Amino acid sequence: MSDEKPAPQVDVTKAWAATQDQKGAAKKLRIYAGLCWLVAIGTEIAGIVMLKQGKFQHGNMALLIGILVVIAAFAIGGSLMWKAANRHDPATRADGFRFFVQNQLGAIITVIAFLPLLALIFMDKDMDPKNKQIAGGVGVALALLATVVGIDFKPPSTEQYTQDMNQCATQIKSGQPTTACSPEVAQQAQAIARDSAAVADATKSAANPNGVDTVYWIASEKAGEKASTEHVFHLCSNVSTLRGKQVKNGSVTQAYAENATRITKQIPMEQGQCGFAAPAAAAAVPAAAAASAN
After folding, report:
1. Mean pLDDT of the region 35-52
2. In angstroms, rounded to a whole number, what is the distance separating the alpha carbons of residues 275 and 212?
3. pLDDT by residue (tens digit) across 232-271?
4. Does one domain contain both 38 and 145?
5. Which comes out higher in pLDDT, residue 222 or 140?
């Protein structure tokens, strides 16, 4: 029979990880965002060149304002796509600098796309003061709007997604309303819930008619760290696959946290090796013995 010792508490801070589909979607969005920002900065450079050439000293305000509008439109478009990409593949709070830059890059790029041109507009001594005031005012308003859009006031993180994923999995397993199951975490949470149900069903016995949520997997190559390769988790430590190996045990959620994300394909064989039997089958043995005694 498997060892039913309580599973040790483990840190599941980094348990959530983007799927290949999520990473692919994030990559495409970031490429499109980069192209938008490239257009915004390119338009800014064109505006600076024309400003240096004196094209706006005595008119062409419509062209200058149009340039500012184009910069704002592409800066905002890039920021929205970049923030959408971060929803698919967020950064970790453990790296504070990267977390800040990745989530606020839209605002940073927007400032770069506006500030030099606006500074030159206000510093241009040859531009008509009225035109300078109009162009400068419009530019500042558009820059502020685009910057605010670029700021992520509630940036996602892998840590937050882990909490949501675990809560979502718990809600699924207990039949509660799935309030924490956002699209970003639902797939992994459903996998945890599905595998937890499969393990519970496979480990039913007379002593545990509802099964247990304890699985066993090969420990990481480096103590205290998540395994670098994906591992399989098993029903008990006595299975042939784990013999002679350093084994860890815990819930299915904890197994996923350490990159043991695949349930064994040999459930019937492992049930025999671990000594698990369905409650009905376990109850049938004493019943049959009593019948033969009579």
Report:
1. 96
2. 13
3. 999 988 898 888 888 889 888 888 877 788 889 988 998 8
4. yes
5. 140
Helix (H) or strand (E) holding 171: helix 158-174
Rounded distance between C-alpha atoms, residue 90 and residue 84, angstroms: 10
Query: Would residue 184 count as lying in a domain?
Result: yes
Indicate the pTM of the whole model. 0.69
Domain limits for position 179: 159-280
142 in Cβ contact with 70 (< 8 Å): no
The reply to whether 200 falls in a domain is yes
**Residue 106 forms part of a structural domain:** yes
Q: Which two tokens stand for residue 72?
A: 């704002």
User: Does residue 166 share a domain with residue 114?
Assistant: no
46-74 as b/e: b if 16+ CB within 10 A: ebbeebeeeebeeebbeebbebbebbbbb
Task: Inform me whether the pLDDT recorded for 184 exceeds 60.
Answer: yes
**pLDDT at residue 145 is higher than 70:** yes
Residues 35 and 133 in one domain: yes
